[in-house]
């Protein structure tokens, strides 16, 4: 990796622990990712991105800022990326996915709170995420109690704008959400000094839809048996989707898909045909939260789909591109971004329908219901998921865990037993 | 207590564990309540209500139901009691406040979830709450993730209507909330077969405001030094407010206040003048969740105010009684019920203002910030409360606990040290 120390130093990164963090990440990546067999060549780009995880992209963002550009950090798929682009900004998903800055976090947050929330506050308080430090504005949301209340504290450390995501999807909720979309537009325009116009929004929608189409294409290639790419590699691409440059990323995903299509034609896969096929559903997984997929894919199974925000929920819906006015395009953006079925909604039957559709389309043998500790929305909704799957005769394994490795041995045993059961069933 | 076994049996109560529950409650009440010194005579009625806790009132509700009346159970101060009354129904707050039915609950809910939620689901699943079993409809809300998602499961066991409480209080939120108020009216009218009219709503507002005025009067008498009533007794009255008959309760509270006024005039109190005065703020306390006030008031302090839903938040706001039409009265109800400052809102500066006002008006020496385990909204907002109070120089003690007695010894030590510090300071 080139030397980014002066950049990090300029951003106020705490260099020593940051160096330790990167030193821990790269061997983990080696073990989890580079040890995989039959990887597609097109993964080289994504390996490069991880190798440069706090480097090149951060450099790009800061070059953009030096020219007067504004960077907006987001945490959630409900924050419309289109609006940031259309206002002339660049958006970036923020760091989480690892235990970090715990001592600093526990001085401001309760100990028993979701590891994702502890992680992003830890990155901020310990000054270990150059993306965070490159942001001119953070856009939070009210999708869960923990995040909603933590953004209030985060606002002591950085400029924060919070979008209210409604809890149902009825007419008054849609109106509330459209008002929130308009408020975000105003805030972004104020930030960048540029107007969101019909043309700029249309172009942003086009770019984002192209990215979503590429991700859908990638996802759909995994319907093949054997799948041409591992669940780990697919997850990595979805994780990188949140912070890479949109057009470059879309091009690289499409190039990978060309290769994967060829693989599918030739029957080349990452596992033998007939390998038990898993769907993972639940709370999102930020880099480097790879524990569960790594355990699953070294237990004789392959993950073929993710009903996660770092998966299907991120790219399932396109924004309608037709619209006669800016207002109509904003309505399209609002409609598209209220569509995914996060457990923050009540009731949330659409999620069960998505799971059922993914099971059929991806010929899934078993489901892992993944819940981060203390994540009430997904932990409680697990009951509905399990009831639904049991009624359909689909095997389901609940995995409740955090970012530590303490339970890895026990999880491995449970997952192996689950995979063995699937193997005997199929 | 008269014999209510046949009534409970008819309601489907699981009689043996229910008898054990009551057998545990009454000695606890004896120890916590009846051992208090200098209690006002007017507490006799409230002692009687607790003695009859699952008896007389349940009998009344079921006599009402036999005449065709409908009973509506609620969990939260945002559910407007006025609307239930105006539709010809009776509302009742539901059981919680004690560890119960845990084995049944943990089969459907995650183990690490708020004790209040586990408790109400435990009461329902184990069939131990005759109020639950007397309800024709339960009205839930979306004030926290745990409750929001648990109501979906509860709907498998009883008819549930969920109100969406918005997360901010801006214009679009007020519109959403008014729509929710109108949806509840429609649901209640369907349930009772009676229309909410201008006259019935006006009368209901009048009754509820009279109750709130009586509770305010009670609260304000506690400004005296020494206070004429203990925090434990005041809390009990606020707890009973959620399920007793409105007019009888109002009358009894006012009769007690007459006595308390006389006490204040004569300088009679429940503790010596100069006893350290506490404000308790945080998550609500349902009967018999008396652990914290009992520990505090046997540690040489007196609680003079509660910034809780079982306290100030319940009666601080009156509903505007003037309005030329049913629609205007409904707007008044909506406005009043969005006013209290629950930690479900973001940001929630109004709560800090309330706390500050209570500290001044009630001459508070120290604040206990009370958080039920795994209650993210209050647990995270504690940070804001503590920061605010420290800036004002007001001592604050955070107490995070559950419904068990395991931590009672440790809490007692911490509270005694806090009270001793207040004593030296004043």
From TrEMBL, chains A, B:
GO molecular function: hydro-lyase activity; iron-sulfur cluster binding
Sorted UniProt keywords: Iron, Iron-sulfur, Metal-binding
Pfam families the UniProt entry points to: HGD-D
Gene3D superfamilies: 1.20.1270.370, 3.40.50.11890, 3.40.50.11900
Tree of life domain: Bacteria
Nucleotidyltransferase as UniProt keyword: no
Bilayer-spanning residue ranges: none
Cofactors that this protein relies on: [4Fe-4S] cluster
Protein name from the UniProt record: 2-hydroxyglutaryl-CoA dehydratase D-component
């Amino acid at each position: 990796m080139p030397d980014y120390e002066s950049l990090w130093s300029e951003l106020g990164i705490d260099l020593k622990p940051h160096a330790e963090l990167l030193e821990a990440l790269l061997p983990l990546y080696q073990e989890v990712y580079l040890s995989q067999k039959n990887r597609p060549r097109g993964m080289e780009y994504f390996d490069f991105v991880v190798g440069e995880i706090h480097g090149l992209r951060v450099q790009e963002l800061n070059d953009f800022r030096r020219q007067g550009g504004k960077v907006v950090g987001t945490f959630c798929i409900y924050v419309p990326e289109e609006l940031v682009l259309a206002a002339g900004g660049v958006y970036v998903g923020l760091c989480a996915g690892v235990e970090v800055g715990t001592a600093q976090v526990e001085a401001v947050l309760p100990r028993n709170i979701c590891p994702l929330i502890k992680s992003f506050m830890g990155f901020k308080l310990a000054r270990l995420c150059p993306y965070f430090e490159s942001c001119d504005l953070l856009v939070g949301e009210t999708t869960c109690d923990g995040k909603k209340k933590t953004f209030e504290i985060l606002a002591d450390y950085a400029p924060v704008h919070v979008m209210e995501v409604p809890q149902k999807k009825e007419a008054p909720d849609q109106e509330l959400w459209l008002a929130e979309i308009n408020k975000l537009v105003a805030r972004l325009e104020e930030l960048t000094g540029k107007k969101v116009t019909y043309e700029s929004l249309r172009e942003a929608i086009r770019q984002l839809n192209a990215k979503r189409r590429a991700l859908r294409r990638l996802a759909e290639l995994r319907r093949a048996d054997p799948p041409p790419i591992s669940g780990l590699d697919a997850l990595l691409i979805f994780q990188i989707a949140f912070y890479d440059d949109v057009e470059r990323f879309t091009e690289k995903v499409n190039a990978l898909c060309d290769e994967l299509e060829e693989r599918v034609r030739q029957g080349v896969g990452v596992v033998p045909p007939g390998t038990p096929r898993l769907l993972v559903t639940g709370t999102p997984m930020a880099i480097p939260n790879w524990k569960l997929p790594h355990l699953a894919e070294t237990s004789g199974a392959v993950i073929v789909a993710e009903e996660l925000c770092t998966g299907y929920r991120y790219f399932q819906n396109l924004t309608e591109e037709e619209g006669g006015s800016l207002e109509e395009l904003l309505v399209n953006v609002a409609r598209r971004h209220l569509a995914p079925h996060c457990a923050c909604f009540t009731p949330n039957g659409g999620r069960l329908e998505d799971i059922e559709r993914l099971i059929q389309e991806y010929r899934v043998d078993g489901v892992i219901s993944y819940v981060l500790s203390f994540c009430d929305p997904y932990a409680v909704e697990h009951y509905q998921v399990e009831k639904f799957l049991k009624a359909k005769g689909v095997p389901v394994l609940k995995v409740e865990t955090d970012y530590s490795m303490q339970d890895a041995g026990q999880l491995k045993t449970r997952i192996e037993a689950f995979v063995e059961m699937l193997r005997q069933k199929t």
